[in-house]
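Quick one: structure tokens for this chain, please?
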Amino acid sequence: MSEGTYVEGSWYFYAPNKGVAIFFTVAFCATGVVHAWQSTHYKCWILTPLFPFCALLFTVGFVLRSIGGWHYDILNEYIASLCITYAAPPLLELQNYHVLGRILYYVPYHSPLHPGRVLTTFGFISAIIEALNGWGASYSVNQSLPENQRAIGHGLIKTALLLQLVVAACFLLLAGTFHHRCRKHGSINGRLSSTLLTLYISVALIVVRTIFRTVEYFGVAAVNLSKIEDPMTLSPLLRYEAYFYVFEGATMILNSVLFNVRHPRRYLPENNKIYLAEDGVTEVEGPGFEDGRPLWQTLLDPFGLWSKDKASQAKFWEKQPTQVEVNAADQGKESPNDHK
């Protein structure tokens, strides 16, 4: 592992540790294979497609980092390694949005907004953040641009990183509000609690990783790398490889394994029209949510505050159910609907 000393010609600052990089390559490959099997076994490729895909991205990223242990002076491999590795966490956030939306479908009467709007709303905001990030990166790394334009690029990336933390806070607020309503009205059970707890842990891991990236980047942006005379004056976050493996590698492998062990489909039914009755025990198959508004309107008004079309917000769970099934939901077991 790097001891904080500069290796001549290395784009990483140090020579990447080959053994640790190979370990994470194998680990992400293994968890990705398990995720692919789980998506097939639980018939939930629509719900959890990004778990195996992100594991694949991390696998490729760490393969390139392993190669960088021998060829740390090759710029293209360095850029590809970082870009592919850094591309996965935002997608994992998107996956969490999808899982929360699926949870809201399961207990629709306590959902603060239409469950389908969770993915579209947070996904839309995340797309804007990623656009800022990409725009900023194109400015900050272009050495042919004047210093003031590169500074704009650094500012855009800083803004994007801070906005990621704000979005994570809003996401937790939404999940927490829903959780509080469920507990207040006695609609909580073991299955629902387990799924929400898993989501909270995942968000916490991603937030820790994002805070690290934010602190790391603010330290880099404050330094003109083209004019630096002594590399040892750089931030320890850049000089010591251990920080990368702890806050980037370890947090993300833990997140992936977390969902292997506590996969959402272990606790949620396959059909999103099946919801938990207000007694917290009975599962009911209803008509499902509908929203006849145009997509642009749902993005601008996800809570339906200004919508005149109240039909989409009809409380179908208050009507006589067409099908009722009693299950062991309060014990956190797999849904009986899973194997029909």
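Confidence is low (pLDDT under 50) at residues 323-333.
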